[in-house]
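Tip: read the tokens left to right.
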């Protein structure tokens, strides 16, 4: 039955949740096939060493063992290295990266051999019997050290640890900085972050030996990209048409499952060699070594300004740690922020440069926000530094530099066109919600009284770019794939609707929001829409889920597919009602004849007519189905204002968040509850980055934070309740006016938190504290400001 109810914007409960909450969901670890064997990976205990020998004989003779292979044993499985799809410059250095190292290991945990056995325990036991001899080599773990003359080389054959330098410049940078009355110089470091999805990675390859076909189940964010990339670049003799990739239920990724991993290639090879299904499940401790990591970037940031704080120029020079190899999009991550170092402000000169560097550490790659948290942190912290320098309030310095509100694409200095924005409005709302003036008064009276516990208020008026991206822009940035996505709508004869999407959700609720969009467009109940995803056999077209692109690209493809359905249905309805198409009104799934509303046809009724094909207009194909592939014309630019209020104990350095307000603008909202959920998760990750998480290596390349015991992933107990609100400035990029929200919180939160801590201590002369703002760092900063040793 057609319905006039509107779902978009409403609080529809997540259709995914009953399965997830009752344990019915199927993750890789829940899948079992007859004859299935298990793989275990032998990993390097050295950060850099020559492999002098790999002895697998003892392992092979252990109970249940089917095979054990070194990197050299597997060499003929590969036509090439693991792929890097983003060679950002023409002269980039891209070292070979074999799924299992052949003669040298370059980071702790790199695969050196694999064992396949009947059970997981047998594979693990036998892995301990694989004997690998190493000749240790010198190690370099810091990216700036790695650039110095005489530093140990991660890849001796490259003759350098520099992978690339990428630059972007606009306006008269040198002149602006030379002549500006005020120049603020800051230096920030973004520690390594270690992704901790609830479900670690997992891979299962199932061969159909007679046909030479394989089905690869992977806990991946990118089944489509994986299928193309692994067959195009890595697997020898495996035509893309013979590989089906399925991402079943996936328990989070946060960018870390946006990759083509060694284990995916090796499990496929093992299934091909043994002719049996082979499974590998990552252990949590392996996750800390072999899944990509995030950030690890040094930034030198300079702002040029007038004496009263009008921003004139922004300069940001980065050294970014790539780790030991380039994974799928490693070199491109800093570029995702490269255009955003001026934030929501309007300087007349802009200069960005990033040098990507190899070190003996796990490769870095996309981690929630990817490049944009770094950019936002730089500009939002530096704006606070500028405010202090010119004696202005942080809110005031922002307001006087904001772009004026706009609804159409607007050029900014870095070369982008922002889609729409009203930055003053989000800031005003955030300050109202947090009670800014009262807090400033409280801050002052605590200081006047000489309280040990002082108050700090930190702002972050962020912008990010998502909905990656027009394919031609990606080409200009030398990214190897396109930025489009696809959707198919199939109206079944029974009135039910099947949607096939090329996005691949792993916690984002696409089944729900795609159902809402379809239900409104076609006037069917939301329960009557089935959304299928994550299987390349039934959704051949797709670019998957990352970069908060899914709604603004995949959701827009769905919007256009629904329009195609309505167009075709209009033809059939006009034919059946014997009127011209122009004589029909359409609303919420029902066509009515103008002036005769009782003469009507609904989409489900037309779907049945299209299926019987008894009475279709001439030249009309039976069936009511449409596909649309949408390549966006621009990015979308979500923005917002986050305010963090902290209480800092000046005696112990302890920081407590007493209030956190986030006002976000992601354009039109499809599902407010899901959007809030994204912001909750995102802010939590941002606070974690600001206060707790830090991947630390020692000088030998050993990971000192190798488990949750010493890598501090916060729980609800460490976090405040968030007070959230929204403004809506529809995007000019797509017809629904939607912008992404998946990463906004992670991008917004770190500068809000650190600005708050610095603000709390500014009266003592503290101007900077490195992330994460641990009690020890805070305590040392206070001591140093008071003239003591740090
Ligand atoms: N949405 C909406 N209205 C808007 C914007 C979004 O209703 N104006 C809804 C969308 O329909 C979708 C969800 O919010 O259901 C997120 O949409 P979008 O912003 O397009 O982001 P993606 O779906 O592309 O998700 C990717 C994003 C990223 S990049 C990371 S990292 C991240 C995130 O999503 N990783 C996650 N959220 C995560 N959530 C979980 N549970 N697990 C992860 O790994």
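Filled-in amino acids:
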């Amino acid at each position: 039955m057609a319905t006039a109810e509107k779902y978009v914007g409403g609080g529809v409960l997540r259709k995914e949740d009953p399965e997830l909450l009752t344990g019915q969901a199927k993750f890789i670890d829940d899948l079992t096939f007859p004859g299935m064997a298990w793989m275990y990976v032998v990993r390097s205990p050295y950060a850099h060493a020559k492999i002098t020998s790999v002895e697998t004989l003892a392992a092979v003779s252990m109970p249940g063992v089917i095979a054990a292979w070194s990197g050299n044993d597997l060499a003929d499985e590969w036509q090439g290295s693991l792929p890097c799809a983003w060679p950002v410059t023409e002269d980039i250095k891209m070292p070979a990266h074999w799924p299992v190292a052949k003669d040298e290991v370059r980071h702790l945990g790199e695969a050196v051999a694999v064992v396949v056995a009947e059970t997981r325990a047998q594979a693990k036991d036998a892995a301990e019997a694989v004997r690998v001899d190493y000749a240790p080599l010198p190690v370099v773990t810091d990216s700036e050290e790695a650039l110095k003359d005489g530093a140990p080389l991660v890849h001796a054959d490259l003759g350098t640890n520099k992978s690339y330098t990428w630059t972007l410049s606009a306006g008269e940078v040198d002149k602006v900085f030379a002549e500006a009355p005020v120049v603020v110089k800051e230096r920030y470091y973004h520690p390594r972050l270690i992704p901790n999805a609830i479900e670690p990675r997992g891979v299962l390859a199932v061969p159909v030996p007679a046909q030479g076909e394989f089905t690869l189940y992977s806990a991946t964010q990118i089944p489509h990209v994986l299928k193309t990339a692994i067959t195009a670049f890595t697997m020898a003799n495996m035509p893309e048409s013979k590989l089906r990739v399925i991402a079943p239920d996936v328990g989070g990724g946060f960018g870390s499952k946006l990759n083509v991993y060694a284990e995916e290639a090796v499990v496929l090879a093992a299934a091909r060699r043994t002719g049996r299904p082979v499974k590998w499940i990552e252990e949590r401790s392996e996750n800390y070594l072999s899944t990509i990591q995030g950030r690890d970037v040094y930034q030198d940031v300079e702002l040029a300004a007038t004496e009263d704080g009008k921003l004139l120029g922004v300069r940001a020079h980065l050294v970014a740690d790539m780790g030991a190899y380039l994974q799928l999009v490693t070199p491109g991550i800093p570029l995702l922020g490269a255009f955003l170092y001026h934030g929501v402000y309007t300087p007349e000169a802009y200069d960005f440069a990033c040098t990507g560097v190899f070190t003996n550490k796990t490769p870095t790659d996309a981690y929630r926000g990817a490049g944009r948290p770094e950019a936002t942190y730089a500009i939002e912290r530096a704006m606070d530094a500028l405010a202090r320098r010119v004696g202005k309030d942080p809110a005031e310095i922002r307001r006087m530099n904001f772009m004026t509100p706009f609804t159409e694409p607007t050029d900014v200095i870095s070369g982008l066109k922002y889609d729409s924005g009203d930055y003053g409005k989000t800031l005003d709302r955030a300050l109202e919600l947090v009670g800014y003036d009262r807090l400033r008064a409280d801050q002052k009276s605590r200081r006047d009284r000489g309280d040990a516990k002082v108050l700090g208020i930190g702002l972050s008026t962020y912008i990010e770019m998502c909905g990656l991206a027009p394919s031609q822009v990606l080409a200009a940035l030398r990214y190897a794939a396109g930025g489009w996505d696809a959707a198919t709508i199939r109206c079944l004869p029974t009135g039910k609707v099947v949607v096939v999407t090329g996005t691949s959700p792993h916690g984002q609720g696409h089944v729900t929001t795609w159902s809402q969009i379809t239900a409104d467009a076609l006037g069917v109940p939301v329960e009557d829409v089935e959304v299928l995803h994550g299987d390349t056999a039934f959704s051949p077209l797709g670019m998957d889920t990352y970069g908060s692109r899914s709604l603004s690209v995949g959701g827009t493809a769905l919007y256009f597919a629904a329009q195609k359905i309505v167009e075709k249905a209009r033809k059939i309805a006009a034919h059946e009602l014997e009127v011209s198409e122009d004589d029909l009104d359409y609303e919420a799934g029902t066509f009515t004849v103008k002036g005769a509303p009782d003469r009507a046809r609904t989409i489900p009724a037309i779907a049945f007519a299209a299926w019987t094909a008894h009475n279709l207009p001439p030249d009309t194909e039976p069936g009511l189905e449409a596909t649309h592939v949408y390549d966006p014309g621009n990015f979308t630019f979500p923005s917002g204002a986050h305010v963090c209020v902290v209480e800092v104990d000046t005696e112990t350095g302890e920081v407590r968040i007493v209030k956190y307000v986030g006002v976000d603008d992601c354009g039109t909202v499809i599902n407010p509850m899901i959007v809030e959920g994204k912001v909750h998760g995102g802010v939590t990750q941002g606070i974690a980055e600001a206060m707790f998480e830090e991947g630390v290596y020692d000088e030998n390349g050993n990971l000192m934070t190798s488990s949750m015991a010493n890598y501090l992933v916060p729980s609800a107990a460490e976090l405040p309740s968030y007070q959230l609100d929204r403004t809506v400035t529809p995007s000019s990029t797509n017809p629904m006016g939607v912008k992404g929200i998946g990463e906004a919180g992670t991008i917004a939160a770190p500068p809000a938190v650190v600005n708050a801590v610095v603000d709390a201590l500014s009266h003592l002369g503290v101007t900077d504290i490195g992330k994460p703002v641990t009690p020890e760092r805070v305590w040392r900063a206070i001591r140093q400001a008071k003239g003591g040793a740090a």
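Residues 31-137+198-252+257-290 form a domain with the Aldehyde Oxidoreductase; domain 3 fold (CATH 3.90.1170.50). Residues 197, 252-255, 368, 506-510, 513, 545-552, 555, 666-671, 674-675, 678, 681, 738-743 surround pterin cytosine dinucleotide (CB under 6 Å).
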